[in-house]
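Marked as duplicate of an earlier ticket. Keeping the data here for the record.
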Amino acid sequence: MCPLAEKGSSVKLVATNRKARHEYFIEETYEAGIALTGTEIQSVRQGRVSLADAYAEVRNGEVFLINAHIAEYDFGNRFNHDPRRPRKLLLHKKEIMRLDSRVRERGYTIVPLKMYIVRGYAKVEIALAKGKKTWDKRRDIAERDARREMDRAAKARR
């Protein structure tokens, strides 16, 4: 998961992008901090986040999380945030340069896999991913079904 979780600190999983592992081959994963406003972090702590159609983009040497939905905070005032605004991801410069060079290659994109809170800080696990073709998806489904069938047969024998 994340390197901080191994040190015994509590990790609260807020949201996962289950669709990402079905749609993409995951090549590399990175842990990134995320710059949020006050009402956004309150909403994240409540777990009101959706990463379903989200992706990340490199602009001018910075990485932004696009199309991630963080619901408006219920007790926010007129300065409440826009739910789908682009949010800056915090990464090291070398990681950004590596992601940028790989995304310029054909077929690569950056997708968020999960969002969690570690020691009060919101983090996003992003992945460098390559899109799957439809036959790849069908093969994965067939393998999963075969594994499930073998587990059922083994359980029935016991």
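See parent ticket for discussion. Residues 30 and 132 are 20 Å apart (CA to CA).
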